[in-house]
Design goal:
27% helix; globular
Amino acid sequence: MNKDIRYKVQGFIRTEKVAGMVLVEPVSQWFNAGNHLDAAGMFALEHPEVNCETVLVVGEDYSLGSYPLEHAKMSADYIVGLRA
């Protein structure tokens, strides 16, 4: 039995600016999910504009997770049924 808990997921939007400057804007949101990776997948669905390399996840119980953005997107594919 896997009980859903709340996870806060954070990613970043990286924008190249003139003269080599880079703007990094954090984006975060809470999700109820069964595990860290499912929360990261939900985040990828809600925030397709996120383009950082890593998605950070922390549970209400202070458990930590860190996933490559591509893994979060793959989890999102499973959530919406694009992968079996």
